[in-house]
Write a structure and sequence with these properties.
With about 375 residues, the protein is mostly helical. It has 4 domains: about 1-115, no CATH class; about 125-210, MazG-like (Helix Hairpins), CATH 1.10.287.1080; about 250-325, Helix Hairpins; about 325-375. About 15% of the residues are buried. A hairpin with a 6-residue loop joins strand 3 (about 85) and strand 4 (about 95). It has a 5-stranded mixed sheet with strand order 1-2-5-3-4. The chain is elongated, with a radius of gyration of 29 Å. About 55% of the residues lie in helices and about 5% in strands. It has 15 helices and 5 strands.
Length: about 375
């Protein structure tokens, strides 16, 4: 049966077996990986001699978003509504957008999509990245190095961080795409140097995640998030010992991380190995102690050191309270910015400049701004 379908595809639509062929049952379309740059033959399960009762059709992970359970929606997202569809034993003229659920009752043939237009496929961006770096590609992309791209990676990561405040939004999808481009570009540069490529990147992270989740992929037991964190740090320690026993638990924390985030990561790692205050009361006592030491410091050097100690223990207080210190301070910065802008507007409405007001007048405007914010 398949031989006859392939023969018709060769005759009518110029299918070349050298390009390979994906053969997928229509009933399993949402559960099967698809590569739009390869020819696709969709057939009913019966054609393959498979009993539908013994297969599952859960959406493929990563394809469970809008319309993830609808094969027509999946084809539309991967190929586009205008992509031509060949219907075996029927006249031409169909497109992905014209298909209905009944269309899967007969075999369908989809020509491959050009790599630069297979936008939703997993290898579209790597192909585009390689094309940009080609001799006749983009001059800007061809000039880039790992070092020149570092700032862009950081910028895109911060933009993702900012938009995460709104949870899942279309804007988040766009920002994640910008960040993904940076990863793909670095993999492309490494591939050109013959060191690694995107396959190695994917294999490295996938193998690490499987290895560090033996309670999911093995026979270990971890019933709580705390159990998982402790197990994670033990596995990381074993990995470090296997490769370089001179490295400690705090090695590997990025020097480029914001100070608050690095401090919290450092304290998290120590706590997961058992070095932590028995209760939050101990942390609060330490805050009071460090505050007093700052108060008593009598030189600039001593004050700077005591201030650092105080901030460090405040990060510990945030961690023990389930607060992300970096996010909390960012939120405080944003709140201060909103209120100060209100103070500026209030002063302007009175026809006075902020620098001409004394502290008491400014503080009164600040209190008014706070009250106004609470009412909105």
């Amino acid at each position: 049966m398949l031989d006859a379908l392939v023969a018709e595809a060769r005759l009518r639509w110029g299918f070349d077996p050298a390009n390979g062929l994906q053969v997928i049952a229509g009933e399993l379309l949402v559960a099967t990986p698809l590569e739009p740059t390869r020819p696709l033959l969709i057939v009913p399960l019966a054609t393959l001699g498979i009993d539908q009762r013994v297969v599952t059709s859960e959406p493929l992970p990563g394809r469970a978003g809008p319309g993830g359970g609808d094969p027509l929606a999946v084809l539309g997202r991967l190929y586009g509504a205008d992509h031509p569809v060949g219907r075996i034993g029927a006249p031409d003229g169909a497109t992905v957008g014209s298909l209905t659920g009944e269309s899967f009752d007969r075999p369908l043939f989809l020509r491959p999509v050009a790599p630069e237009f297979a936008l939703a496929g997993p290898w579209a961006l790597p192909w585009i990245s390689a094309r940009l770096r080609a001799p006749d590609g983009c001059p800007w992309d061809r000039e880039q190095t790992h070092l020149s791209l570092r700032k862009h990676l950081l910028e895109e990561a911060y933009e993702v961080y900012d938009v995460l405040e709104g949870e899942a939004t279309p804007e988040l999808a766009a920002e994640l795409g910008d960040l993904w481009l940076q990863i793909v570009l670095h993999a492309q540069l490494a591939a050109e140097a013959g060191i690694f490529d995107l396959t190695d990147v994917q294999a490295a992270i996938a193998s690490k995640i499987v290895r560090r989740h033996p309670h999911v992929f093995g026979d270990a037991v971890a019933n709580t998030a705390s159990d998982v964190n402790r197990q994670w740090e033990r596995i990381k320690a074993d990995e470090r010992a296997a490769t370089d026993d001179s490295k400690g638990a705090l090695d590997g924390i990025s020097r480029s991380m914001p100070a608050l985030a690095a401090s919290q990561e450092m304290q998290d790692r120590a706590a997961n190995l058992g070095y932590d205050w028995p209760s939050i009361e101990g942390v609060l006592d330490k805050v009071a102690e460090e505050t007093e030491e700052f108060r008593q410091a009598d030189t600039d050097v001593d004050r700077a050191e005591e201030f650092g100690d105080l901030v460090f223990v405040l990060v510990n207080l945030a961690r023990r309270s389930g607060i992300d210190a970096e996010s909390a301070v960012r939120a405080a910065n944003a709140k201060f910015g909103r209120r100060f802008a209100n103070v500026e507007r209030a002063a302007a409405a009175r026809g006075v400049a902020l620098r001409d007001l004394d502290f008491d007048a400014l503080d009164a405007l600040w209190d008014a701004a706070k009250a106004e914010e609470r009412m909105t």
